[in-house]
Amino acid sequence: MSEYFDRIGDEWRQRAADLADWSMLHLVNRTDVWGRYLSKKQRKTEFGLANTAITAPFREERGKVFLNAESLKKHFKTRDVGGVLGLHSMSADLTSRWLAIDIDLHDEDDLSASPQQNFVAARGWHKQLVELGCDPLLFDSNGKGGFHLLTIFAEPLETKSVNRFGKQLVADFELRGLDQEPEIFPNTPTWDHYGGWLRLVGRHHTREHYTRVFNDEPWAEGDNLWLEGHDAIDRILRTQPLAAEAAEKIGLVRARRTVCLDFDGVIHSYRSGWCGAEIIPDPPIHGTRESIAQLRKRFRVVVHSARCATDAGVAAVTAWLVKHKIEVDEVCRFKPPAAVYVDDRAVPFRGDWQAAIAEIHEFRK
Predict the structure, then answer these.
(1) Residue-level pLDDT at 104
(2) What rounded mean pLDDT belongs to the chain?
């Protein structure tokens, strides 16, 4: 390693605590899973194929081991590529604290892209975000023509709207001289997987490179165009998150907590009992349409049912809701994380097992 690389690395290590606290506050969408790059000796499988990264922790440790400030501190202090971490771009409740655009250049021999083209495009989108009221960070992510453009939000926003906004922003990628659309984080939201993760600023996972930050001061030019070490860290830590009110003005949507409704006995009156997953013969419970519409003003309302174990069951529930003009945000195949679950056959657990058992025995005698 070069003396210069070691010196810059020391500056990042000195600021590890501040960077970890900042990252926990502004970048961490979930603590149950995160990305981790493997050390060089671990990057070969038994078949000889490179395997550079994993989703941590290992499956058997999930729910027991969590990402915290100490984990992030180790990332910023690491000298080994095996200590480099990545953060998921959306929470379990489909909200996102940030938007990132990944303008890649992994293959230096790829003649369809160049560092200059990437930088011109990245700088154009950076300018556009500034004009929209954001305080974006433009990172030289690998020192070879790859760039990350990051905007952070003052509060978590609806992932679907963040993804849509990002795609709209880069829709002109061909006019900006790129052959491929940059990758957007967060990607398309879905309940049944963790979504993509993006490498955290700091040490690169293969190259002798630490993140440089574009100097967006009006006087910056030439050798002053990129900030390194302490200067880069100072710029990161003073970034202004986009306020929720300003975010709404540019088409982003404030997050709503999720309310998950059972279907039979809560929405569907279920007078005829079970006739099959795809057979839904009865009308809604009185007042359902109006009540759900009222809930949706403040909450994200989803439906989950035993009927949804198959695609055909999901389609049947969706068609029934449309028939009765009941609007919900999603009919879920898998039970989603939610702030509240509404179910006509539920016994609420209040921390007392004996009381819960008694309620179970007395349930609908």
Answers:
(1) 87
(2) 92
Q: What is the average pLDDT across 121-131?
A: 97
DSSP assignment of 337-359, as one string?
P-SEEE-TT-----S-HHHHHHH
Residue written as token pair 């955290």: 200
Residue range 325-330: mean pLDDT, rounded: 96
In this structure, the answer to whether residues 282 and 226 fall within a common structural domain is no
CB 152 within 8 A of CB 97: yes
* Whether residue 230 is found in the same domain as residue 262: no
Contact between 302 and 329 under an 8 Å Cβ cutoff? The reply is: yes
DSSP, collapsed to helix, strand or coil, labels residue 262 as coil
| Same domain? 239 vs 276 | no
Q: Show the domain range for 338.
A: 258-362
Does 192 share its domain with 293? no
Per-residue model confidence as pLDDT tens digits over 226-258: 999 999 999 999 999 999 999 999 999 998 889
Contact, 228 vs 140, CB < 8 A?
Answer: no
Number of compact structural domains in the chain: 2
> Could you tell me the CATH number of the domain that includes residue 135?
3.90.920.20
CATH code for position 344: 3.40.50
CA 293 → CA 179, 326, 329, distances in Å?
44, 8, 11
Query: 229, 249, 269: which is the final residue of a domain?
Result: 249
Q: Note whether 30 and 172 are same-domain residues.
A: yes
Q: Is the dihedral of CA 92, 102, 252, 170 positive or negative?
A: negative
The tokens for 43 are 């990057």
Q: Is the torsion defined by CA of 330, 336, 342, 345 positive or negative?
A: positive
Read off the pLDDT of residues 157-188 as tens digits, 9 standing for 90 and up: 999 999 999 999 999 999 999 999 999 999 98
In percent, the amount of the chain with pLDDT more than 90 equals 77
Task: Find out whether 125 and 149 touch, Cβ atoms under 8 Å.
Answer: yes
Asked which of 1-10, 122-131, 301-310 is least confident by mean pLDDT, the reply is 1-10
Mean pLDDT within 105-131: 84
**124 in the same domain as 63:** yes
- Give the bridge partners for 110, in sequence order: none
Count CB neighbours of 167 within 10 A.
15
